[in-house]
Amino acid sequence: MDPSCRVPPVQACGGSAVIWGCCRWSGLGSATLCAQRMRCVCPTGVGAMTWSPLACGLLSGKYNEGVPESSRAAMKGYTWLKERLCSDEGKKQLSKIKELHLLADRLNCTAAQLAIAWCLPSEGVSSVLLGVSNTEQLLENLGSVRVLSQLTPPLIAEMDALLGNKPRNVKKEARR
């Protein structure tokens, strides 16, 4: 068993830790299964903090017309992001994101606000980590709260169909 999986749940469920965090772990499903294996499912359950809800800026629209010099993908150490954007798969993603922008326009919000609002009520999400580099971005991202009331089941189904990446329901799958 992965040591990062073994130690923190024991500490968390033993009362010596209130919050357990991990980075680049393969998801909430893994965390839930790990906690179950360790017989350490805390009474409050498992909650996730989403990281990069705007997919490193893809959902903001900044890469719709290429890679701006001032963007993360142009920075040293982020060649993986630039390569991803320029790949066939990246081009497919950008095409879907352009359609998401049209959906956001219908709702009178930005695609970034729509994406963050979509994350907020998701089952298992405790909070959404915003990665902003200026006050303007922060204010735009906080505007996602006003979009929440527009997220109807049909709209969410439309987004899920458009993006093709609907999250799995780990709780329901575990019961099967």
Automatic annotation (TrEMBL):
InterPro entries the UniProt entry points to: K_chnl_volt-dep_bsu_KCNAB-rel, K_chnl_volt-dep_bsu_KCNAB1, NAD(P)_OxRdtase_dom_sf, NADP_OxRdtase_dom
Major localization listed first in the record, in broad terms: cytoplasm
Pfam families: Aldo_ket_red
GO biological process, alphabetically ordered: potassium ion transport; regulation of potassium ion transmembrane transport; transmembrane transport
SUPFAM superfamilies named among the record's database cross-references: NAD(P)-linked oxidoreductase
Domain NADP-dependent oxidoreductase residue range list: 44-162
Any one cellular-component term (Gene Ontology): voltage-gated potassium channel complex
Location of this chain's protein in the cell: Cytoplasm
Gene3D superfamilies per record: NADP-dependent oxidoreductase domain
GO MF annotation, one: oxidoreductase activity
Keywords: Cytoplasm, Ion transport, NADP, Oxidoreductase, Potassium, Potassium transport, Transport
Similarity field: Belongs to the shaker potassium channel beta subunit family.
The protein's name: NADP-dependent oxidoreductase domain-containing protein
Native source organism of the sequence: Amphilophus citrinellus
